[in-house]
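Example with several molecule types.
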Amino acid sequence: MDAVKMNDFLIPFMDISVPAGFPSPAADYMEDRINLNNFLIRHPEATFVVRCTGTSMINAFIPPSCLLVIDRSLKAGNGDIVLAHINGEFTVKYLQVNEHKCRLIPANRKYREIEVTDGSELNIWGVVIHIISNPKDFRHVCFG
Amino acid sequence: MFALVDCNNFYCSCERVFDPSLNNRPVVVLSNNDGCVIARSDEAKALGIVMGTPEYMVRDLIREHHVAVFSSNYTLYGDMSDRVMKILASFVPRLELYSIDEAFLDLSDLAYADLLQLGLRIKRAVTLQTGIPVSVGIAPTKTLAKMANRYIKKHDKNLGVHWVAGDRLVSEMLAATEVGDIWGVGHEYAAMLGRAGFRTAGELAAAPADWMRQHMTVVGERLWNELNGRPSISWDFEPRKKKNICTSRSFARHTQDKTILAEALSNHAASCALKMRNEKSCARFLNIFINTNPFRAADQQFSHSIDIEMQTATNNAPEIIRYCLKGLDLIYRPGLNYMKCGVTVGGFVPEGSVQAALFDESNRPRDKKIMETMDKLNQSLGREIVRFAVQGFEKRYRLKTAYISRKFTTDISQVIHVKN
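Resulting structure tokens for the full complex:
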């Protein structure tokens, strides 16, 4: 195990032959190709992926089947979509917190809000930072 | 100044991250092949489950107290360890990985007046980001840092950070630590020191340096210096190279069949060869052993092993398998109930500096290519998809992992599933 291993250091490589005297006009403009990891993950050590199925967050654009990117290092605040563990189960909901109460709120009227009482064991596992889905998986879903 | 950061009940804590309903419940993790208890949560310790106990001996306790049992999931623990270590590395210029769940941090060049605050920050960062609880011991030497870690776990686990700042705190800690609990003091030295009248680390630190040197050689002198706050153990950044690699396993049922032994040894040989290829080293020697079950008193007992020197150092699977099968021919005796067999390889040389024997007949570049292709296929298609016919197809020799959790962090098809 190598704790201080650096991220793969990619060097752009152009697999074309260059006739002497006529360098490719693009050679000076090469850049790294877009790397989705860099875009999706800000804190690699604190980032986890979970699979989410079900319709309780459909109006928050979380389709019935998708992957969610979770960042544990962010402090969950009012209005964040969080991965919570409550009363023995994982669930993804809007977090509503103020000085009076704490609730987990679905984005679908067919589901009930979860009131967090003194007796419930709530563990905010992390904050949902990205939703990854394939449009084909929810073509029959009507948001609204 | 050194810090020793240690993950609390690491394997159990990993399991808890991905199933928080295990919090406050007793949890144990079993060794390879579900043999013995190798990790216990605090609740399991409180039940009196002892480290290293065979699983069947605590089965009643497990049932009675609803202890959650897990097979060891090294893929998961390895990734979680990697995350923890990278977070630790972000705090300090130098870090030494001591084990899968422990690291020494060099705090000497840091501009912190209050190292307790730094310790707390480290602890909070690791727990927040990974969910793994850790303890931090901070002291002038590695031995004292290790002791400080142990001390705080015992006295204030919730705080979890102990900075042994100043002589008063050092002597307090030394007085509270028994000689046998000092890092680096094994059973034999502990017994010897006990006979000589030393009870605590404090008494040992006050012993004359000459006495230590006389009775414990340079080890004792170094220990004495460390206990007295003078760093004497150097940094060790290079991951230790293994001296040998061993793969062995018991059969689920004893067997007399030579072909089954051959199949098992071939699997062990292939697994040794793979480990060597991953480390880019080749072995010069190998040893195979077979033995009967010593707990079946009625059986005729037999145990035999043979050392084989290979003509040319290699990590080529078919070649090592061939040597193993030759060895089996030499030591196998029919009509006995065999229970276990294994392969050990050693005498490592780096892949690049292998000298071929004078009359070496194999085509090494070709063999290397075959192995590389095989490894690549197995990496992309799944473990052991491509293997040698002699290894067989039954899962008789695969690890028994009846209670294994999922690979939550390394396999997208095994991540946490939220039913929403």
